[in-house]
Amino acid sequence: MWFWFAIITLLCWSGSDFFSKIGCRDSKDKYSQFKMVMAVGLVMGIHALIEIIGGVEISWQVIWTYLPVSLLYIGSMALGYVGLRYIELSISSPICNASGALVAIIAIVSGTADPMEWPQYLAIALAAAGVIALGFVEAHEDDALRAARQEASNYKYAKSWLALALPIAYCLLDAAGTFADDLVLETLNEDSANVAYELTFFAAGVVCFIYTVLIKKQPLVANVERPKYVGAIFETAGQLFYIYALASGEAALAAPIISSYCVASVLWSRLFLKEKLSWKHYACIATTIAGIIIMGVYDM
Fold first, then answer.
1. Which of 211-225 are b and which e, b meaning 16 or more Cβ less than 10 Å from the residue's Cβ?
2. How far, CA to CA in Å, does 23 sit from each of 37, 117, 147, 184?
3. Measured distance CA(220)–CA(213) in Å, rounded
């Protein structure tokens, strides 16, 4: 079953990327990221309640212990949602997924990394080089060429430092969260930590609801908000099947499949969102994805 769990995780997380993009891409709605956090928080809160009823132990001590990790993950996702207003999903997703390479770099620099094979060092270099080159290509693309290739999608994205800074910030925070996660989980049960994360996300969703709806009086229109909740369901389901895939005993085989979900995100954005990039963009994305997949192969 590990193979199907891995495939379902890949489809769910790429689906989360896709529907989150639809829900957050309106650059005129400066509160879309808060509404997206509300959606994910609600769905994760419901799942956390189901897990608690099912017997997962949770306490305030676990929540407080895991809180720094939860905040890093939630902060990274919120920044990612902001970024979806300013940049194509085809570009954003590979940059965000390069956080694995950054974790490896942090581990190497801090001296906590285990000895690695040469392909792992190559993978880190590929992922890092791909992201850097992608940023360079995006920043220096001719405005006329950019407008021409974006015509089919009906969404125009101008060159902006913020457009690149936000997915990079996601990458940094997610990498910090992953690095901290490895340390904290040495003292916590994984299921309890996951429930603590989901409850913290629910609390963040409540805070966003108070700020967005009650204080700022922003309307919630069903047709506009629906993709956010579909994305939230995919995000939570992907997290659940990710745990099943890694617990199946074949994590070394499941990890590279799961880690390549940004390939599917790029595919969905090309097919359904009509995003079209230059060959330079795709070359950089392919380089980044190659590094991510190689890291996935050696992850376990």
1. ebbeeeebeeeeeeb
2. 11, 41, 22, 33
3. 8
**What is the distance, to the nearest Å, from the Cα of residue 154 to the centroid of all Cα atoms in its chain?**
24
Where do the domains of the chain lie? 2-298
Distance of alpha carbon 61 from its chain centroid, rounded? 27
Residue with tokens 């003292």: 187
Other CB atoms within a 10 A radius of the CB of residue 209 amount to: 19
Asked if 292 and 100 touch (Cβ cutoff 8 Å), the reply is yes
d(Cα 134, Cα 96) in Å, to the nearest integer?
12
pLDDT in tens, the chain (300 residues): 788 888 999 999 999 999 999 999 887 899 999 999 999 999 999 999 999 999 999 999 999 999 999 999 999 999 999 999 989 999 999 999 888 778 878 777 777 667 778 888 888 889 889 888 888 888 788 877 788 878 877 787 877 788 889 999 999 999 899 888 888 988 898 899 999 999 999 999 999 999 999 999 999 999 999 999 999 999 999 988 988 886 776 666 677 778 788 889 999 998 999 988 889 999 999 999 998 888 777 765
Q: Which two tokens stand for residue 59?
A: 């306490």
Whether residue 32 contacts residue 80, with contact meaning beta carbons closer than 8 Å, is answered with no
Tally Cβ neighbours within 10 Å of residue 114: 6
Whether the CB-CB separation of 50 and 191 falls below 8 Å is answered with no
pTM of the predicted model over 0.85? yes
